[in-house]
């Protein structure tokens, strides 16, 4: 089975033999965030993979994970390499430390998930929202439906979380 969808005029698909990603996006299609948990060491992993990156065990189970975290880093895109994104400039791609499993297996590690900054409705964030977000900003996951039972996880501001007074941002030119 191939999963297919479309976003901003771009065709998206997950091949039928990519079992781990198919399962991940099936959960996302239900607006439910699940990650693989190693049955040997008990650590979660992202992105989905066939083996545990810490102990090389091939057995895992899918478990629900709270889709909230803190911006660890970001990229502010000002030049759209793909023309379909031109009208959304500038937009942010966020690298988010999930609250779950932060500081494991070492104090410097975390589960980190990359996705775009969007409005709560799933549209790429407008410039005024882009300017509010930086390192330390609290975000939550929302899902952008792109096909039948196929959704892409994205990040939006967590309105219920305490936000830093001034999140750290790269100096602007």
Provide the fold topology.
Elements (H helix, E strand, L loop, with lengths): L2 E5 L2 E5 L4 H11 L4 E5 L5 E2 L14 E5 L3 E10 L13 E8 L13 E5 L10 H4 L7 E10 L2 E8 L16
Antiparallel strand pairs: 1-2, 3-4, 3-5, 6-7, 6-9, 7-8, 9-10
Briefly summarize what is shown.
The protein has about 170 residues and is mostly beta strands. It contains 2 helices and 10 strands, in the order ββαββββββαββ. The mean pLDDT is about 95.
Written description of the protein model:
The protein has 173 residues and is mainly beta. It has a single domain (3-157), classed as OB fold (Dihydrolipoamide Acetyltransferase, E2P), CATH 2.40.50.840. Helices cover 9% and strands 36% of the residues. It has two helices and ten strands. The chain has helices at residues 19-29, 127-130, and strands spanning 3-7, 10-14, 34-38, 44-45, 60-64, 68-77, 91-98, 112-116, 138-147, 150-157. The strands form three sheets. The chain has a five-stranded antiparallel sheet with strand order 8-7-6-9-10. It has a three-stranded antiparallel sheet with strand order 4-3-5, covered by helices on one side. A hairpin with a 2-residue loop joins strand 1 (3-7) and strand 2 (10-14). The chain is globular and about 45 Å long.
